[in-house]
Design goal:
Blueprint (H helix, E strand, L loop, with lengths): L7 H7 L12 E2 L2 H11 L6 E5 L5 H7 L4 E6 L2 H10 L6 E5 L16 E6 L5 H10 L4 E9 H8 L9 H9 E9 L4 E2 L6 E8 L8 H11 L7 H5 L6 H11 L12 H13 L6
Parallel strand pairs: 2-3, 2-5, 3-4, 5-6
Antiparallel strand pairs: 1-8, 6-9, 7-9
Helix pairs in contact: 2-3, 8-11, 10-11
């Protein structure tokens, strides 16, 4: 029987792996943290979990102990080969060698919703997050390791300095909470930043009829943080009297600033804009 290597550093040495900085490779090697992340995902026998950046397979192995199916996504051919070798004969694990930004998450479980777990490459965190939101109808929850600075912005409530565009866009589709902070010493090689694990439960509530309009209004509102909603929103393109009508319809004080609005209030602004009879070009 092939002996399982139980240490990240031993496996790196065994396969002569040199972590690639351009891919943001930094392997989580603290098994206690790995098990806590898996526990947050709450895998079940009837569930499919997609793991982003499976790397050397340590989290994959823990997920496969509890989930009915694990799809391990890995873009690096060297690591994908190691994963295939490691999980040979394990029907629960499927290794997919692909760029996560090209992966069709809806294909993972066509008849139900999946869970997503991953240690996200920090240099492409935002594109990955927004791609996941694009596939939100196929996802029930996400447990993601992110740079703490970004995680704090995503989970920030209204009225705080971290609250901004990512906070509102993500809150429209999910309920996000920071579950733990992970220091650089838990990784090999150690990154230069502190990390956080974010849990995002995807909402099932009915959505606004125009997500693109919602996002454009949010971005316009935060374009100049020190300016009022009136000063920012009117720069989008509507005549002032029509912008005034939007605020009247929504019931929102136009002298407020964007960071004071909840996601529900941004939804009210969007609905009022739609009811004004003119879309943003």
């Amino acid at each position: 029987m092939r002996q399982m290597i139980t240490s990240v550093r031993k496996m790196v040495a065994r396969y002569d792996i040199h972590p690639r900085k351009r891919l943001g490779q930094s392997f989580l090697e603290d098994l206690n943290i790995i098990r806590r992340i898996v526990a947050l995902a709450e895998p079940a026998e009837d569930e499919t979990i997609v793991e982003i950046g499976a790397g050397l397979g340590f989290m994959t192995e823990e997920l496969a102990k509890r989930a009915g199916r694990v799809i391990a996504i890995e873009v690096d051919p060297r690591l994908a080969a190691i994963l295939r070798e490691r999980f040979t004969g394990q029907d629960r694990v499927e290794v997919v060698e692909i760029d996560v930004l090209k992966y069709d998450f809806s294909s993972a479980s066509p008849e139900g919703r999946i869970k997503v777990v991953g240690n996200i490459p920090y240099h492409i965190s935002s594109p990955i997050l927004f791609r996941l939101l694009d596939f939100r109808r196929s996802i029930s929850s996400m447990i993601l390791m992110l740079q703490k600075e970004l995680a704090d912005r995503i989970a920030a409530p209204p009225g705080t300095k971290d609250y901004g565009i990512p906070s509102v866009i993500v809150a429209r589709y999910t309920k996000a909470t920071c579950e733990m902070t992970v220091p650089p010493t838990c990784f090999y090689p150690a990154p230069e930043v502190v990390s956080s694990v974010l849990r995002m439960e995807v909402r099932r509530e009915p959505e606004l009829p125009d997500g693109a309009l919602f996002a454009k209004i949010v971005r316009a509102a935060f374009a100049r943080r020190r300016k009022t909603l009136w000063n920012n929103i009117r720069r989008i393109g509507l005549p002032e009297e029509m912008v005034d009508r939007v605020f009247v319809r929504s019931g929102i004080d136009r002298t407020r600033r964007a960071e004071t609005l909840s996601v529900e209030e941004f939804s009210l602004l969007t609905t009022a804009w739609i009811e004004s009879g003119r879309q943003i070009s």
